[in-house]
Design a protein that fits this description.
7 strands; alpha/beta; 7-stranded mixed β-sheet; 243 residues; Glycerol-3-phosphate (1)-acyltransferase
């Protein structure tokens, strides 16, 4: 019975999330003057959404070094990616942030308005998504990347892609590393959203440090070596608990 009620609550909340996205895009954003204010409004709405998830005991969230995470500015943020809710959690905490999203979301009737306005499409053309990311950084935003691509299970150590290193190289922005983990696998790939388990999911968010991009550029001026070493550093930090 508990499993059914939790599943029903998750389905209801995700439906509410989609309706909320439509409301914000077409009823609030037209009266929001600047792009930064739009990101602030989105953050407030997602913070409210996370409070709903916590109040219904779907999730619980423990944040270590909370003030340090909240104060991240104009950086490339890389994080582990254990569940469907990760980007909502991160953007509800870190101000003025955007992220890469799957191109199919730009066709979703609920989310396409916000996606096209505030996010970076993960398109096939490297030049296109790189330029979009650089534009967001130039505007003063944080760019959040899940460098392993898709969601991963708790004990997996997925391969890290070089996209974050490439953006750092071109933008000269530092890379901030975060660990986001759950106490059990939750809303994984190919897992129906109504299968939310019988217990509250415990999330932990930790600050793992940052990579000084300019220092790495001085040490590794060669483009290929720079991307290799930065990617290796990201992998080591994100998955040091598994090693």
């Amino acid at each position: 019975m508990i499993k059914f009620l939790r599943g029903a609550a998750v389905v209801l909340l995700i439906t509410l999330f989609g309706i909320g996205a439509l409301f914000i895009r077409y009823c609030i954003f037209p009266f929001t003057k600047t792009q930064m204010k739009k990101y602030e409004m989105l953050q407030k709405s997602w913070k409210f959404y996370i409070r709903l998830l916590k109040s219904l005991k779907i999730i619980n969230l423990k944040i270590e070094d909370e003030e340090k995470i909240k104060s991240i500015k104009n950086s490339i943020i890389v994080s582990t990616h254990p569940s469907f809710a990760d980007i909502v959690i991160l953007m509800s905490i870190i101000p003025h942030s955007t992220c890469f999203v799957a191109e199919k979301l730009a066709r979703n009737p609920f989310f396409k308005g916000i996606v096209k306005l505030l996010f970076i499409l993960d398109v096939q053309s490297i030049d296109e998504w790189l330029n979009n990311a650089l534009e967001k950084l130039d505007a003063g935003l944080n760019v959040i990347i899940f460098p392993m691509g898709g969601r991963h299970k708790k004990e997996e150590t997925p391969k890290i892609r070089r996209g974050a290193a490439l953006i750092a190289q071109k933008s000269h922005k530092n890379i901030v590393m975060l660990n986001l983990e759950t106490d059990f696998d939750f809303l994984q790939n190919n897992q129906p959203i109504y299968k939310a388990g019988e217990e509250t999911v415990q999330y932990l968010l930790e600050y793992l440090g940052q990579i000084d991009t300019n220092s790495f550029l001085e040490k590794y001026p060669d483009e290929v070596t720079f991307k290799t070493e930065v990617t290796k550093q990201i992998s080591t930090n994100l998955y040091k608990k598994q090693s």
